[in-house]
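Exam revision sheet. Question 4 asks you to relate a sequence to its structure. Input first:
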Amino acid sequence: MNPYADLVPVFVVALAAPLLTGLMPVRTRVPQVVLLLLGGVAIGPQVLDASGPDAVTLLADLGMGFLFLLAGYELEPDLLRRPVGRRAGGAWATSFLLGGAALMLLPGHQPPELLTAGAIALTTTALGIVLPILREDGRQGGRLGRSVLVLGAFGELGPIVAMAVLLGTRNSGTATLLLVAFAALALALATVPEPIRRGFGGRLMSLSEHGTGQSTLRLTVLLLVTLLAVAQSMGFDAVLGAFVGGMVLRRWAPGDVEALERKLDAVAWGVFIPVFFVSSGMGLDVDAIVAEPLLPLIFLVAMLVVRGGPVLVWFRRELPRTERVQAALYSTTTLPLLVALTQIAVDDGSMPSDVGAAIVGAGVLSVVTFPLVASRLGGRGRPSEPARDDGAADEPPEDVVPTV
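Answer key, structure tokens:
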């Protein structure tokens, strides 16, 4: 059997997704992650049977690792310590509790593992999808943009930590100790003075970071592969390690940081992450969605209530009503991490494949609808109030009539 034959349709989908996205009108453009998933379904065993998840296991695993690494790299820890960060943390914790309560309403007896995995899945946020929309609308640096940024940060960090502690292969006590160890290591590395971080090692790396050397990029890949190599013994903790590794990399990256970011995007989003999403589409339980077509809609409503509802409450003094609704819709938009976390939960038996498929289907619907509605609520090109550094909880100003 030719092993490369199965890779051809995967990379055809990976190439076609951004091209098709680029042809769509800007205001109704569908994120390419949706097209990658749908393309994976089309070429997978349940439709054309041109390829299968087993053919790209290694590439897909690296793609998932890069996804968590970049999520950690994009996180800004300083935001989490401000008052707006505490409100966002409270909103996420409330969402997690509401998610478990909502899943208890499903018919039949639900095991604790499903309640936990489902609650985690309902609380993720696709910050990488939301931020470009805010940037395009001119709102990333304003009050709304700041709030969505910190809500999205907790929507990435919270589910990853909860998954590691509550659903890892180790018991919760051991997982918590590992989490504390990871946090202590990250804090210690992050507080090292810059002259030491940018010292001899940084100068040595910078000498060979371009051209054929690419030392900083190779160091990043080595970090990621090393963390994934211990996955067999540490379970999901290695994925948490990839996330923390991204946070450390943000502080320790030697040489030209902007060049490294461009290279990471090129390698991760150019090769590995698209393969992960196509592989996830090939493994999606489409038959379960067809058999229960209303289930994704039910989970979509659950996401809006579970994730968006607490935002409306916790940010009632931070944002005016219209922006609060926008923040709730943006924070409920989810897919990339949702796919990864759901796949892990299905693989380790915490979540049935039909429930996982329905939740992923709800995630697809969320990225298609929620950002568009939120963007239309605020109107295009309207000036946004600058963000305040102190995070003071002022009384919200009078609402402006939304433009639809």
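Marking note for examiners. The domain at 30-378 is CATH 1.20.1530.20 (Na+/H+ antiporter like fold).
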